[in-house]
Design a protein that fits this description.
Layout: E1 11-14, E2 17-20, H1 22-32, H2 43-70, H3 74-78, H4 82-90, H5 95-107, H6 114-131, H7 145-159, H8 170-185, H9 189-193, H10 205-210, H11 219-238
Antiparallel strand pairs: 1-2
Helix pairs in contact: 2-5, 2-6, 2-7, 6-8, 7-11
Length: about 240
């Protein structure tokens, strides 16, 4: 709370000054460290970067939380007493987030929030697929803040074994392999040790998309990977070094 009044991460402290909110941090880093620009020069391409960040900020981020709590996090929370669960919910800085966490833990994939959460991810994947028709990266020919912003959410889908959501979107698969290769080349030791970004297993894509009860495995792995998402986010920035 001292650094971030919203009591959430990420929070960046640079030269004694605090910057909060993921997309704002991305724009700040690009402007503060100009030797390695991550915003395209073309105004229209820059607009594409902002579109992706806006979609994430307004829709995908909360939807990611919903799918995660409805699947991987649900079994452990159901083992808690009602009082302990409520204490966990009370830690959320947002009343709205507390509301949908409570509902998805109680109802799982039958929650009223799950369908819309899937739709928001479908929209993100469609945007990625369409972007690949114009270039190798989300904003065109160059790796940008759009790619960096999207990485954690596609990674989370993969950790939840939801990669089948892009089976019919070859552009997404091609983009994801390209991004995995960049992060691996940036020297992330965990990526090499665990077989890249997608080494973890969790509930299946079919269970979430079609509504079956998810498997109860994967919670420990997803939590471990969640702790490393921001480090991978940082590694993705490092991966902006031009390819040899």
């Amino acid at each position: 709370m001292k650094l971030n009044p919203n009591a959430v991460v990420p929070t960046l402290v640079h030269d004694g000054r605090t910057v909060i909110e993921s997309s704002v941090i991305l724009y700040y880093l690009d402007e503060a460290f100009t030797q390695m620009p991550l915003m395209p020069r073309d105004p229209l391409a820059r607009t594409k970067v902002r579109y992706f960040n806006k979609l994430i900020d307004e829709y995908v981020h909360n939807s990611c939380t919903i799918l995660t709590f409805a699947t991987a996090f649900r079994p452990a929370l159901l083992r808690l007493s009602p009082q302990a669960r409520e204490a966990t919910y009370a830690k959320s800085p947002s009343k709205k987030r507390t509301e949908f966490k409570r509902d998805v833990i109680a109802h799982g994939l039958d929650s009223i929030y799950v369908g819309e959460a899937v739709e928001h991810h479908e929209k993100l994947l469609t945007w990625i697929d369409q972007a690949m028709q114009a270039g190798p990266y989300l904003a065109g020919d160059t790796y940008s803040l759009a790619d960096i912003a999207v990485i954690p959410y596609v990674l989370r889908l993969e950790l939840l074994r939801l990669s089948r959501m892009w089976d019919k979107r070859p552009g997404v698969a091609a983009w994801w392999e390209r991004l995995r290769a960049r992060v691996d080349r940036a020297g992330d030791p965990q990526s090499h040790e665990r077989g890249g970004l997608g080494a973890v297993r969790g509930p299946s894509a079919r269970s979430v998309v079609q509504g079956a009860r998810p498997a109860q495995s994967g919670l420990r792995h997803v939590r471990r990977k969640t702790q490393s998402i921001f480090s991978r986010f940082t590694c993705a920035i490092a991966a902006s070094v031009p390819e040899a």
